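MODEL INPUT / OUTPUT PAIR
PAIR INDEX: 1
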Amino acid sequence: MASRGFISSRALQMAAAALIVLSLARPSLCQQRRELELAEIPAGDQLTYHGGAVLSGDIPVSIVWYGMFSPEKKAIVVDFIESLTSKPASATPSVAQWWATIRKVYLSNAAAAGGDTRVLLASQAADEQYSLGKSLTLDQVFQLAAGAAPRKGALVLVLMDADVVVEGFGSVRCGLHGADAGAGYVYAWAGDAERQCPGQCAWPFARPSYGPKDKPLAAPNGAVGVDGMMVTLASMVAGAVTNPFRDAYYQGEKDAALEACTACAGVYGSGSYPGYAGDVLVDKATGGSYNAVGAGGHKYLLPAVYDAAKPGCSTLV
């Protein structure tokens, strides 16, 4: 069966919450794509469960590093993945607490079997020779994910360095998650936007390309491109596990869905509003802004999680 995909554009995260980005319909290697447009969310529409499968149990994660990533940049990503469930939280607020909200609000209510859901780093592969070139289509992103040979229930992260241009990156999307429904695995893509489109895909660590030109927040790990990528990646991981095949948790039309974190786009702390990330924490030593700490000591700015029980966006700070 063909893969299915969703998009997320940081350029639109500072727009009014009533605007959404239509997803790419089934981005396989042989199917046409739907054009992106803005649409209004129907009044009274809620992010609800539609009966489909979520990822549960042990979720093996494979990382595909496409291009050149320094050991420190890789460590930022790996610490995030391992901090979700594999290691105990070493500080508060933590990455593990963010994941606990997703698990409680979404996964525990929809999993076919009881028990915890753990995210486990299974493998890493580096493609430093840019085997598909430095200008990729979304079909090629899917190729890279499939090349990791994921098993059913797995999650593949395809990460691009700052030299790689992906179709629509920075103009209509900052990341994507999708799935091969036949094989039963999901994938998520995000890229380093520091040199290409920081105003769209590295906000709030870069000045926005439109709207008020407020001073950007300092990146929590001192890497604007990768710290910005982590914001997108966290949102895509949340969507991939809670709505992997477009029939689980979402709001609106199936092909124009808001999900666990994209429903709270641009919200990172209390008091947030379009163009303002909210009241987040600041590292006294580095000046970096964050709202979660990883078990390995890295800090992150993670997106808020929509909680229908409130209803509203649940932030860590």
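PAIR INDEX: 2
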Amino acid sequence: MGYGELKIRSYDVQIHRAGVEDLERRCEVGPTKRVVLFTDTMGDPICRIRNSPMYKMLVAELGSELVGVIQGSIKLATVHKPPKNLAKLGYVLGLRIAPLHRRKGIGSRLALELEKWFIANDVDYAYMATEKDNEASVNLFINRLGYAKFRTLAILVNPVDHRASRLSSKTEVAKLEVEEAECLYRKFMTSTEFFPDDLGNILRNKLSLGTWVAYPEGESWDDFGSDGKVPSSWAMLSVWNSGELFKLRLGKAPLSCFMYTKTSRMIDKIFPCFKLPTIPDFFSPFGFYFVYGVHREGPLSGKLVGDLCQFVHNMATKTKGCKVIVTEVGGNDNILRRHIPYWKSLSCPEDWWCLKALKNEESTTHQLPRMPPTTTSIFVDPREV
């Protein structure tokens, strides 16, 4: 395809909204080959980046037809490369190419144009997330555009049953004030890669439902902040209501998923006393909670994370249309993967963060990814989900 006929320009809501929404409805997203999801942006195609400090959407047009779109955002975050720890990061997301126009170089044109915007805004590194099994994305960003695998994450997806469960009587759960939550995160998680410098804006966003801590019964949390004491074991997490931004719809799923959904609903209807967990209807649009900022300390902290996840599940049962809870954890954090409930067939065991240095004087495109993680904890910015 000759590039002369392809036009790349900034998104204009008056001109492009209907075309971008139609493209979103026709383009599938992850998390695995066996599961196909479609997104509904509910009339706001830039909803996924609107809460970021800086953002941009580009569209690709062939004649009067909109054939591709890409989104990007910019923030200041930690990247542990001496002598500085903070860097300007550009995040690439939402690349969609119309099915009939794939493998024509449109994706690479959009990505390169977005990188130009990053460079014009003094961005140090561009990064993106892709599933390990997404051959088209891996081929484009790693094999053609020079990105390098940086970290491996696991996306854990847990369906929301309509029943709330009783929490362990041996665990205390408390909601933190925003100032307390920010203090804890900055004290214990600033050693993680890509920790956002504007954390306070995230925690104060209306989509952030709050931050909770869990600790053993009989221990006190009240002294924290005055003398820096924390319980012998504790865990924390925050919750972001992504369903207020956009909806998901399942287009394809494993037969086992479909059969379990139908069977569990039938048994629950006929024999409600069995209290069998029922799987929601994923084939109509649904919302989800995103759990972020998961951190734990102490020998009992794994179980405490599990208790917090149960607490979040009970919250979700009271939110109309919320059908799943999504959590991303470090790929090598086996303790969290053991204690956070999830359904394997809907989850993604290997999601890659891929990185590219944009400044010529920094020859770190492949050096930084080789550096071992400074911690098993990760902080996934909920504005980039």
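PAIR 2 NOTE: The longest strand covers residues 65-81.
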